[in-house]
Each structure stands twice: as C-alpha cells, then as structure tokens.
Design the sequence.
C-alpha cells in the first residue's frame, strides 16, 4: 500500500514540475504590466473624439465576443465603464463627442505631407538575429531572405520619400545587427522583470487545479524555481515582447500622427501570396481578462481614430494591389483576424503594436517571402541607388496612401502646439 501511495506521489510531483520546466515561453500573445485604476480615471477626464454612434459601431469589431458585456453602458453621449460586474464596483464616466465629423476634412486646406509626424516601425531585426527570430528563409539554397533586413530597407526608402515631401519621420530601430544578441546588454531590458510579467500573464485564465498548482505570485521564490530551466531559455522571446512595448511607447512619446509597422509575410505553402493590412481590434476570448487589456480596448473605442485608421488601411490595400499586383487575402475561417467588411484587405487584430500605440496605426504585411516568384523582386536591387522592385513598390504604395490621408491624419491632433522632441528618443536617419 505504501508503494502505491509513493507511486502516485511521484507522479504528482512530476506533473507539478512539468508545469514549471517544460519548454521555453512560446505564447504569441504579448502581456502587459499592470494598469492602475487611476489610468482609467485619467482617460475619463480627457476629451474624446468618438461619438456614441461610432462607439456602438466599433464595439463589435474591438470586442466581437462580447467580453466587456455588462462592464459597458452607452447612453446618449456618455460611456460608463464598470471595473467589475459587482453592483458596487467602481466606475468611470467618459463623455463622448456630440458632433459628427462627416465631411469635416473636405473643408481643410491640403498641405500635403508637410509637417506630418510619421513613425515607421521596421518589423523584427534581421541581421545575425534573423534565425533566432525565425525570420530567416532560404529559397532553393540561395542567399537567405531576412525579414528584418527587408523591413529596414523599406522603412529607409519610404522615410526618404516622406522626408523629401516635408514629413517628419522617425524609425523605431536602427540597422540590422551584426553582433549576436546579448540580452543583459540591452538597455531597458530587465530579464527578471519580464519573467515576472510572464508569470503573472500565465496565471490569467487558469482555473481549478491548474490555478492551485501554478504559482499564484510572481515573487522571488516562483521566479527562482523556474528561471534557470525555463525563463532563461526564453530570453529571445521575452526580449522580443518587451521590445514591442518599447516601440509603441516611442511612437506615443513622439506624438505621431500615424504609425506604420512594416512586415513581409511567410507561409508553409510556397504558392501563397497576397496582401494583408491589420488595424486595432478583435480582442480574442481571454484577451480582455486583465484590466490592462480592458484599458487598451476602452481607449481604442473612445479615441475616435478607428474610422480614419480604416480609411487609411483601405487606401494602403488598394495602393498595394495596384502597384504590386497582389490580391487581398482569400476568405478564411481563422479567428485571430476579423475582416472589416467596408475595407477589403483590412483586418482587425489584437497585436501588441496595434493595441498599445495611440493614434492611427497599421501593421502592413507585404508579399510572401516564401513564394519562389518573389525572390528576385525582393532581393535584387535595380541599381546601386535603386532598391529591389518590391521594396520600391511597397514604399510607393504606402506613400500614396499617406498622401491621400494626410489632412485627415493631421486633423486628429489634440492640439497644434509645437512638439517637444526632447522626450522623443526615436531613431532618426540622415536622409
């Protein structure tokens, strides 16, 4: 009998240990630091561009699964947000705009791109980090395609074109790295802090026995118990997610009129090749369990920038189709992206850079690097002074869309005060 109990005890211990040590962090969903209730109160105290009609229209796109449910009440020009479903839970009241902005942009003088504040976010890093990022693709044994190199080249080319037309342009990072990443050397990257955030994130959504078995606090004991076996091996993943937060914070400090995150796509099917443009929204089941995520969703609803973001995304998709010959993604049953019916090629998706960045923000997926027909177009420069065809075409498509949207984007500024760039630690090339 004692042997029988010992067997079950050993099995139980193995299960518990397995929860701690199996595999690196592999969650694709970003997590966030705690957002205090005071942030909701500050949000309620500000001016909001969205009308009640806009909030009602966009709520099913931001929260298509109704997770906010009883937490939101919409009456006249007020949105009441409850901290919890309990009757006595704290609440904030956000005053919405009572004026429709339909047609307002047509009365404004067109200044082109002059003075427009643009943040370009070259996705990933490339260089010697490309394999660790899993953004390293080989085609028939030829020189590999590195997504981070393509996005950087595209951002540089587009930034130069924007600069020539008078826009103020910042990039979220510099050139692809030539040295192996050393996580402890990265400024503002705290491995233990990121590990603690990850532990807290892992606790969300756990119920029953799993919640009992998993550490309830991201404290020193829990961190020490699993850091060497799991967290340290997940250093690249943890750094990448902290870096996504940094990029959004940079754009917010620069008070960007628009942020464009540039990516190129990939698939296990070499025949796949289409365009996709992502905008904020579509919080999936479980992604609104934390107050931080609820704060970001609420901010998206009341900021009043989603209609302009959709319009810009529509122009981007049309320009990419016209200049690059790409079709929009065929109909799909995948749930992580929600098609915007009025905007073919535009999808709402809860990605970190889209959730955290204020103002109009898009994540653009260029052609598929894994499509053999794209190789020469992506990799072969036309000349020493001319980028590869796809880099040039994507740059021109984004430039055309930004030209057409400049007055609408500029109209969303909260004020016309001169920007204090001293707090904007963005990377600025010499054009």
Sequence:
């Amino acid at each position: 009998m004692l042997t029988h109990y010992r067997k079950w005890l050993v099995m139980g211990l193995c299960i518990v240990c397995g929860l701690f040590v199996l595999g690196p962090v592999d969650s694709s969903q970003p997590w966030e630091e705690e957002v205090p209730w005071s942030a909701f109160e500050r949000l309620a105290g500000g001016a909001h561009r969205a009308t009640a009609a806009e909030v009602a229209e966009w709520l099913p796109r931001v929260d298509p699964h109704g997770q906010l449910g009883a937490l939101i009440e919409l009456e006249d020009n007020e949105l009441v947000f409850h901290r919890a479903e309990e009757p006595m839970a704290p609440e904030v009241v956000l005053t919405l705009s009572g004026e429709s902005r339909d047609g307002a942009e047509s009365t404004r003088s067109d200044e082109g791109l002059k003075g427009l504040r643009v943040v370009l976010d070259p996705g990933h890093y490339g260089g010697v980090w490309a394999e660790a990022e899993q953004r390293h693709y080989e085609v028939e044994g030829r020189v590999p395609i590195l997504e981070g190199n393509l996005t950087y080249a595209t951002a540089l080319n587009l930034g130069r074109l924007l600069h020539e037309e008078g826009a103020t342009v910042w990039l979220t990072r510099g050139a692809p790295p030539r040295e192996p990443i050393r996580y402890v050397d990265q400024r503002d990257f705290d491995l233990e802090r990121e590990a603690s955030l990850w532990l807290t994130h892992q606790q969300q959504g756990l119920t029953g026995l799993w919640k009992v078995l998993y550490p309830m606090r991201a404290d020193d004991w829990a961190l020490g118990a699993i850091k060497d076996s799991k967290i340290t091996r997940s250093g690249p993943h943890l750094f990448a997610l902290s870096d996504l937060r940094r990029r959004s914070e940079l754009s917010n400090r620069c008070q960007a009129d628009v942020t464009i995150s540039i990516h190129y796509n990939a698939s296990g099917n070499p025949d796949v090749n289409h365009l996709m443009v992502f905008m904020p929204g579509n919080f999936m089941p479980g992604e609104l369990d934390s107050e931080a995520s609820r704060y970001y969703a609420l901010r998206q609803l009341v900021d009043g920038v989603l209609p302009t973001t959709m319009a810009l995304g529509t122009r981007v998709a049309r320009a990419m189709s016209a200049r690059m010959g790409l079709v929009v993604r065929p109909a799909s049953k995948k749930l992580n992206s929600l098609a915007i019916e009025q905007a073919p090629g535009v999808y709402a998706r809860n990605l970190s850079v889209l959730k955290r960045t204020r103002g109009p923000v898009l994540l653009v997926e260029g052609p598929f690097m894994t499509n053999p027909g794209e190789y020469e177009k992506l990799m072969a420069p036309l000349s020493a002074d001319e980028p590869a065809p796809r880099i040039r075409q994507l740059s021109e498509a984004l430039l055309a869309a930004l030209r057409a949207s400049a007055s609408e984007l500029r109209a969303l500024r909260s004020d016309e005060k001169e920007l204090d760039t001293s707090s904007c630690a963005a990377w600025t090339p010499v054009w």
User: Anything to note?
Assistant: DSSP finds 14 helices and twelve strands in the chain. The mean pLDDT is 83. Residues 131 and 232 are 18 Å apart (CA to CA).
